[in-house]
Amino acid sequence: MAITDKIYIKNHQQIASQLETSFPKGAFKGATLDILFQGENLAKLDEATQDRVLDFATDFMDCDCEANPHCGHPEEKFVRYLLDLRAQGLGPDAVVDVMGDDYMLYAYPGDVLSFLDGAVRTLEAVETLADVDGRSDAASDARQKREQLL
Ligand SMILES: [Zn+2]
């Protein structure tokens, strides 16, 4: 499972009751994206929640793809957001705190930790392959990115 399958809406219960409808807890579930980002539903949310949902939409769902928000870009952008937080020196618990403040989302720190470990291992593999191929630019690029995550 991708990390984006393990990102949840923090005040899910409260939002569901404001919208008078049920939707999955997972932030990136298709039904969640559809329900939360309909204009008329958005208007039913209290202001603080609306702000967070709008921030989320602006930051992760702003592509022009026809299939938006189901084009995969929101997930990709969110993964980049997580890696950026890590590159800024945040540990898994702090990453979870920040996504809560920014977007009212949460994840289990253990899931964030394994995601970050996985990213480091992927970059290691890229680095090794690029070295073997004699592509030293790609290798040092991967090394740099990996070092940012450590
Ligand atoms: Zn897209």
Automatic annotation (TrEMBL):
<dbReference type="Pfam" id="PF19131">
    <property type="entry name" value="DUF5814"/>
</dbReference>
<dbReference type="GO" id="GO:0004386">
    <property type="term" value="F:helicase activity"/>
</dbReference>
<keyword id="KW-0547">Nucleotide-binding</keyword>
<keyword id="KW-0347">Helicase</keyword>
<keyword id="KW-0067">ATP-binding</keyword>
<keyword id="KW-0378">Hydrolase</keyword>
<protein>
    <submittedName>
        <fullName>Helicase</fullName>
    </submittedName>
</protein>
<dbReference type="InterPro" id="IPR043852">
    <property type="entry name" value="DUF5814"/>
</dbReference>
